[in-house]
Specification:
It is built from 13 helices and 15 strands. The protein has about 425 residues and is an alpha/beta fold. Strands 4-10-9-8-7-5-6 form a seven-stranded mixed beta sheet, with helices on both faces. Helix 3 packs antiparallel against helix 10, helix 7 runs parallel beside helix 8 and helix 11 packs parallel to helix 13.
Length: about 425
């Protein structure tokens, strides 16, 4: 055990997860690569849990942060804040939500907390609909709506949460149906749930489930849900903490794959917009955002330094069409990994869109999750110079692949080759 790991274990919580048998200390990065304290160089296919969205040490962001740090770091929301207003204007315009208001937080957890506060206050009920296999954060309220046992340490909650089907396409009672029948069955399930409860405040859903293993429903499911929700006055919250800003390639927001009946009432975001700086936020229609009848502030949400980073990062992403790059390079990477997976008995499914790809692993000859294999592949990939993530929900284990959106074709090929060797060494 190295000294830093021993010190970590001596002072930090036991439940604070660490990857790898010998945990990694990352010291610096550039582009799509990072280096550890031993001087080893890695191709980064996880980006700080989808947070380093554009590139490590992106000069435009570094310059913006440095210049802002030389002026003022922070003043709180009690004072006018030009960078916060400017980023809010850009985010509102990009959101697709009419008459949008934006509130900045420090994380996706806090963003989802705020969305739940708004929805339950606006609707005057504490009942919430959520998806099975979902993850929405680590606070008391967001743990209470997380439909993934591995990340939900308590059943106590200020909310009554009801879970509906649809977030996982290839498992569960509707897996064998075609897409149209799958959507119809999930809508019937939603209607049935609503018949057994008081009207909920909102449905919260990730367009692509992140911690759950990058699973997603057929396009159009949430549009079909929206018809039912609208009939009951129930709000739709789209959790875009992992799917926002063009990561899925086909769309700027994940909800746009389900846009037939309009945008969500509330969108939450975080992670990638700050490219490593702590930015989260909520976008909502004005009558929802303004429904609170008490004062509120955010001490650290929307600080000048994080807003400067967000503005520079968003500008770079749009100017360089990183959404288009995610679609093109992500499509090539997905095809390459599917070709590999087709040859290996332990790969059940390679799924995803854009630069958000999941590789589900099972024990060969069965349909049972293989978490040990996932851990082994993670270690073997690291040994080969590649960092990836892992996840999964009920009886599943999956590798999570989400590089910075500026990934090149050559880097995609390099990473796929390392991952192929890691998979073949395991199966």
């Amino acid at each position: 055990m190295n000294d830093l790991y021993a010190r970590h274990r001596g002072v930090l919580p036991d439940w604070l997860a660490l990857y790898y048998d010998e945990p990694l200390e990352i010291t610096h990065g550039e582009g799509r690569h990072i280096w550890d304290s031993a001087g080893n160089r890695y191709l980064d296919f996880f980006g700080g849990i989808l947070t380093t969205m554009t590139a490590h040490a992106l000069p435009e962001v570094t310059k913006a942060v440095t210049e802002q740090a030389g002026r003022i770091l922070h003043s709180s929301t009690l004072y006018l804040n030009r960078p916060m207003v400017e980023l809010a204007e850009r985010v509102a315009q990009l959101s697709g939500i009419p008459d949008a208001r934006v509130f900045f937080t420090t994380s996706g957890t806090e963003a989802n907390d705020t969305a739940l506060l708004l929805a339950t206050t606006h609707r005057r009920t504490n009942t919430v609909l959520a998806m099975r296999n979902s993850y929405h954060g680590r606070s008391f309220s967001t743990v209470g709506i997380t439909g993934n046992r591995g990340w939900s340490p308590t059943s106590l909650s200020p909310l009554q949460t009801l879970y509906v089907h649809g977030g996982v396409r290839s498992r569960g009672p509707f897996a064998e149906l075609d897409d149209r029948a799958f959507i119809d069955a999930c809508v019937a399930d939603l209607k049935d749930v609503l018949g057994h409860t008081r009207p909920p405040a909102a449905l919260i859903a990730e367009p692509v489930q992140g911690v759950g293993g990058f699973t997603s429903p057929p396009d159009g499911l949430y549009a079909a849900f929206r018809e039912v929700l609208n009939a009951h006055g129930i709000l739709w919250i789209s959790d875009e903490v992992q799917t926002g800003w063009g990561r899925t390639g086909d769309h700027f927001w994940g909800w746009q794959a389900h846009a037939r009946n309009g945008p969500p009432d509330i969108v939450t975001f975080a992670k990638g917009i700050g490219n490593g700086m702590s930015i989260g936020g909520v976008i909502a229609r004005s009558e929802i955002m303004n429904c609170l009848d008490a004062n509120s502030i955010s001490t650290f949400g929307g600080t000048q330094i994080t807003m400067a980073a967000g503005l520079a990062n968003l500008g770079y992403l749009l100017e360089h069409d990183l959404q288009g790059n995610a679609r093109r390079v992500g499509g090539l990477l997905l095809e390459r990994l599917r070709a590999v997976g087709a040859q290996l008995p332990g790969v059940r499914e390679v799924r995803g869109r854009g630069l958000m790809i999941g590789v589900e692993l099972v024990r060969p000859g069965t349909d049972e999750a293989d978490p040990r294999a996932a851990a082994n592949v993670l270690e073997a990939a690291r040994d080969g110079g590649l960092l990836i993530g892992k996840g999964g929900g009920h009886n599943t284990s999956a590798l999570r692949i989400a590089p910075p959106l500026s990934l090149t074709v050559a880097e995609a090929e390099e990473g796929a080759a390392i991952l192929e060797r890691a998979l073949r060494s395991t199966y």
